[in-house]
Amino acid sequence: MIQDAISLGQLYLISINLAEKNATNIISYNIEKLLTNETIVGHVRSCVDTCAEVYSPVISLLQDAHNAFKSKNYATAKASLSSAITIPDSCEQFFAEGEIATESLLAKEDATFHQMAAISLAFLSMMQG
Q1: Residue 55 has what DSSP assignment?
Q2: Segments forming the whole domain that contains residue 60
Q3: What does the pLDDT look like over 107-116, one tens digit per residue?
Q4: Phi (first) and psi of residue 56, to 5 degrees
Q5: Is residue 14 in some structural domain?
Q6: Fewest CB atoms within 10 A around its CB: which of 19, 108, 117, 119?
Q7: How many domains are there within the chain?
Q8: Closest to 34 in 3D by CA, of 17, 18, 57, 50
Q9: Range name among 6-15, 26-35, 56-65 with the lowest pLDDT average
Q10: Does residue 7 lie in a domain region?
Q11: 52-69, pLDDT tens digit by residue?
């Protein structure tokens, strides 16, 4: 039996839900684990602290995008997603900057979240034509 085609709207909702779960995992597992690791000090500790601050609004931004989409306010959904997609890049910048550039402890997580948010943004953009 052939299944019904999935609409772009349904794909958007699936992707935004996955992005939200991924962001929740980054905050509640990855960042929290790094914050409690007492061997992380100095510049790296500062970067992790700053990434925790930068990631703090991401869940709210994704929920705003979800709610705006459901209200058919696509411009607000796009603005919220566009803000969320910059968060991992900002986190990565902190590791790269400063007197001592260090390898990011969140590089994989940041890249994954960026890709997931970009997929959601792409679905939303396709729906707007």
Answers
A1: H
A2: 20-128
A3: 999 999 999 9
A4: -55, -35
A5: no
A6: 108
A7: 1
A8: 50
A9: 6-15
A10: no
A11: 999 999 999 999 999 999
